[in-house]
Amino acid sequence: MKIKKEMMRNHGFYLVLFLVSFLGLCRYAHADDNESERSFARANLLYKENKYAEAIAEYERILNAGFENGSLYYNLANSYFREGELGEAVVDYERAKLFIPNDSDLKVNHDYAKSLLRLDSQDVARKGVFRYIDKAFEGITLNYLTIILALLHTMIFILLILRLSSRGARRFLKPLIVSLSLIFILGCISLKRKIAYIQRCAVVVSKEIESKFEPLESATTYFTLGEGSKVEVIESSGVWRKIRRFDGKAGWVMSEGIQFISS
To answer: For the residues of 174-192, what is the DSSP string, one character each?
Structure first.
């Protein structure tokens, strides 16, 4: 009996300790959220006062603290745009699209920045059926697509159990299971491509960058890329990145001249 009471006291102690720790973490997270909101408000005020360089520094400070969302990247992009740094603006418009892909203001500003850089037709190459898969899931963020696929997987599993347990429902459930399975497979392909896009896609932030045949300063220049050009990074070697541009041509560039969309 004494042992049992002692165990109950220990359990109570650990439960209280857990609750105190949990509440402390919640309070800490809430404090951080409040601080980031205040910083975001300060940055927005600086932007409205046309103090774009100071606004950029404030937005970047929030990002360095580990907070990010579509509005933050969108406002940061607008600040870079006002400062005339269009390459940096395009990078952050692309990052904002990962969070708010269907935002109309974002689309207008992004398209305008690209038009100034004459980038309307430039994009990372998409081949065959993948272009249609990408288009079908284009407006869904990575997080939402993951949730949708998890729900679809659960639904398919439940329907399969119902089909096995109910002989009369087999005929009606089969086409539904096939349809959901097809959507699930296409969604998985899209998810994989979205992750690859985030990890490998980059934007030229220098005014102009030379692409070489080899990762050497002395190598022959193959082609040049202008500010804001979107490329796919396919290989790395020290400070060099092998990139592929929208028409499929590939070459080596210095890493300092590009920024990955994945921040």
So the answer is: HHHHHHHHHHHHHHHHHHH
Q: Are 230 and 200 in contact (CB under 8 A)?
A: no
Query: Is residue 86 helix, strand or coil?
Result: helix
Written as tens digits, the pLDDT of the chain (263 aa) is: 443 344 344 444 444 444 444 444 444 444 456 777 888 999 999 999 999 999 999 999 999 998 899 999 999 999 999 999 999 999 999 999 999 999 999 999 999 999 999 875 555 555 678 888 988 998 999 999 999 999 999 999 999 988 888 776 777 888 899 999 999 999 999 999 999 989 999 999 999 999 999 999 999 999 999 999 999 999 999 999 999 988 889 999 999 999 999 86
Query: Alpha carbon of 131 to those of 32, 95, 124, 137, 220: distances in Å?
Result: 41, 20, 11, 10, 33
Residue partners of 54: CB distance under 8 A and separation at least 6: 46
Q: 251 phi and psi, to 5 degrees?
A: -165, 180
